[in-house]
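Two entries, shown back to back:
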Amino acid sequence: MTAPTWSFFNAETGLFASRRYSGSSEFLPANTPVGSIPMEGAYDWQAQRVDLATGQVVDYQPPVPPDTDDETFAWDAGARRWLASPTLAARKRQRAAPVQALIDAAEVGQDRAQREAVLALAAGAAVPAEAAQRLGEIETEVLPLRATLQAIAAATTQAELDAIP
């Protein structure tokens, strides 16, 4: 035989605790949190509460979590939960990250060419052709990526962000 499950609700608010107890009713008092009342059954502490006036379990919509720079919340009646959605700022950062990684990867190979160019200029000599060519190749690769980053940063709607190739 399966032991009964007990949920606990706050005696002052009717809100269920996330904790439950399954076991003998003999040990229920020792497992009941202070200030709580046990109720037989497994209740959804995030979407149900006890109406203290009637003693009945009713649907409950908790307060909306605060929005952040990365998330905004909307109530999903089917899930009976506040669901987070990324903000435009978060989606822009997510979209920009791989572009920035491509820029970083391209620029990794420029150190030697830059050093050769700077040393030549400091000595009053012409920049070596190989160094100038390498820096030009990197700039040709990076320039459109920088333009993409600028377009991402300038996007003011999801549609504008989605339109960026």
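entry 2 starts here
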Amino acid sequence: MEPPGYAMTGVVLYASAFAILPSSVSVSEVRNWLTKADSGIPEHNPMQKTASYLLSLFTQEMNRHPKANRATR
């Protein structure tokens, strides 16, 4: 199924977020982030933050377009 041209950016953003989710889960399961060697607020799971950011960009992109009306009987 071919998405419409105006939705291609949203499809790419969603697919990108979906593609890095397994990496995000595996990083959190390794348990190598249990020690906090540096001070400040280090990012312990950057892949999860990236996936969340891409999903928020997807939501913003889809909200830019008008809502599609469903056919009525």
